[in-house]
Amino acid sequence: RQTGTVETDAEKHDVEYLTPISIGTPPQNLIVDFDTGSSDLWVFSTEMAAKDIKGQAVYDPNNSSTSEKLQGSTWQITYGDGSSSSGDVYLDTVTIGNLTVPNQAVEAATKVSDEFTDDANNDGLLGLGFSSINTVQPTPQNTFFDNIKNNLDAPLFTADLKHGAPGSYNFGYIDPAAYVGNISWTPVDSSQGFWSFTSPGYAVGTEAMRNHSISGIADTGTTLLLLPKSVVKAYYEEIQGAQYDSNQGGYVFPCSPTPPDFVFGVSDGIVTVPGDMVSYAPVDSANQDCFGGIQSDTGIGFSIFGDVALKTSFVVFDAGGLQLGWGAKN
Ligand SMILES: CC[C@H](C)[C@H](NC(=O)C[C@H](O)[C@H](CC1CCCCC1)NC(=O)CCNC(=O)[C@H](Cc1ccccc1)NC(=O)N1CCC(N)CC1)C(=O)NCc1cnc(C)nc1N
Q1: Under 8 Å between Cβ of 108 and 124
Q2: CA distance 254 to 292
Q3: Is any ligand 1 atom within 6 A of the Cβ of residue 223?
Q4: What is the pLDDT of residues 14-55, one digit of tens each?
Q5: Which residue among 31, 79, 130, 294 is best mutated to probe the pocket of ligand 1, counting the most ligand atoms within 8 A of its Cβ?
């Protein structure tokens, strides 16, 4: 039985969190985005055209004595922000922290969209969603977590993402030093392959909680907190000067004073997104107006509790109990 921990680094404005992994023998070190909103482990590779690689580290299956091509298998993935990638598949040894899966499906990219080419710090994605939405054809493959979860002390992982500081992902155990008080647990619906749950309500600032079911996914791969239009409207109505800016593609408001907190329910508990985490980033060099960290989920079909929500808490992704735990950070 094992447990493991790995540090993840926040990019500027916490736009994404990047974590080191190693693949193959001898180990090839890459830095990838742990994404609970998808279920493919794919990496930049030597099979890509040189023009599509701008500074990223690449996986070279020919340089690994333990790589084995999964003949006839391919993958193709498209993400919510319209970015995409595709390629073929190898089985190889993957290590995260002190945890190793000897025959993990490693999806080597042959093509990636410009968004990935332009993101020099990111060498790929490690999906931590449910394996049911893995895109490998003809036979979908297991995620790293699915492959290792039965060897862990407990079939769970935790995300402790921080605001502008390194966070950590732990596998197999709940670190009692990482949170204070009680963890609020809520059941997960994994039928769509996501860590999906329903929040019973929300509040703006210090006002009373409003009963309003919000169904969404806990997604480390989404930067913002994307909520129903009516909730977003109610929130920004409380901010002087807030308005929807079609150029920016979202609500923008004066960076000061600090906006009100946003509170959402988790079962019998609550999670508070502090106002200073809602002002996501200045939209202009004059730093007058800020782009909101809370935006609408219109068109997605569900809400997305992305990094703006997750970095407020110590979050437990429990595949054993099919539940999410939200704890107040220590
Ligand atoms: C098996 C597919 C899998 C489930 C897929 N899952 C997802 O899209 C969710 C997943 O968590 C992905 C993981 C991302 C993908 C891009 C690289 C970083 C990770 N999340 C998203 O796409 C959410 C929207 N994107 C984001 O939130 C990106 C993340 C990012 C960060 C840094 C650099 C580049 C991108 N951030 C931004 O767009 N930002 C720009 C705006 C700025 N204010 C904040 C940062 C899906 O739903 N695809 C279906 C799908 C297809 N086509 C579309 C159009 N929408 C879809 N949902």
Answers
A1: no
A2: 10
A3: yes
A4: 778 889 999 999 999 999 999 999 999 999 999 999 999 999
A5: 79
